[in-house]
Amino acid sequence: MTHILITGAFGQLGRALSRLLSSQYLITNTGLNIPEGETGLILDITNLMLCREVINIVKPDVIINLASLTNVDACESNTELAFSVHVGGTKNLASSFSGPIIHLSTDYVFNGENGPYSENDTTDPINVYGLSKLASEKALLDGQNNNLVIRANVVYDYYVRTQASFLNWVVDSLNEGKEISVVNDQWNNPTWTDSLAVVIQRSIDRELFGIAHWGDGEWLNRFDFALKIANVFKLDKKLIKPISTDELGQVAPRPMKGGLKTEYIQKTLNLEPPPLEESLTAIKDRLES
Ligand SMILES: NC(=O)c1ccc[n+]([C@@H]2O[C@H](COP(=O)([O-])OP(=O)(O)OC[C@H]3O[C@@H](n4cnc5c(N)ncnc54)[C@H](OP(=O)(O)O)[C@@H]3O)[C@@H](O)[C@H]2O)c1
Asked: How is domain 3-162+190-216+255-274 classified at the architecture level of CATH?
């Protein structure tokens, strides 16, 4: 049975991926910490000796690297750590393992002037998160022809252990009756973890390599995304206030028109991006079941 080692496995995408892949493959989940009630191995990818040791013990056939600092503003304030995790960590995995690595990256490798973007568009990151993720892609692909970079954007689920999900923040804030200001000028095609997990699963089966983009079926701004969340989760839309990126003043500059075109994966893996409301409804139904 194919053995897959996942790094950053206890984040939101790791959870969905592990759930999907465990029926088909032998999975070893690794993370910075092992949350209570979960099983796995501790693996900080910035530690080369530990990478070598864990890979040597597990002897995986494929590695999926989800380990990342996903807080874009925290990356901006801590360039060294962002590069250490994204570039140093990726190099550590690549130098410790000769099999295929699937590595997750982001639409933030583009400047956001005219998204959504396809795989052949020119990269031009405007913040530390994007710069370090682009450098991580290069570290993974340079001289390697069996590795795959999957770029994703605004990945979401409802999962209490992650800070990385916009959906969590909107649902929790509205449930607590808190007013939230949401930017109405940053555009993406938000992507459900389960949808991305299926792309990763099929990419393993098809032994895909190079760079591939995935995002779900609707390109919209964050304010409209928040309204759709409130609608499906039956929460008070009046608590959501539109704000411009300039007014909000986030620490890291943001690409404004981001998002990813998905034709390549659609054709190659025979997949259709799911409609946003269908995914939100599936998450809500799962939470209530
Ligand atoms: N979330 C998004 O909107 C988004 C968009 C585009 C691409 N992506 C990419 O998708 C991948 C998965 O993201 P996600 O949404 O699942 O984020 P997440 O929930 O924040 O998961 C990332 C995981 O990486 C772990 N991690 C951080 N530093 C590490 C290190 N040095 N060694 C090992 N693990 C480490 C984190 O652990 P702690 O929580 O303990 O720090 C966390 O469990 C990432 O590569 C991310 O860049 C995400």
From this structure: 3-Layer(aba) Sandwich (3.40)
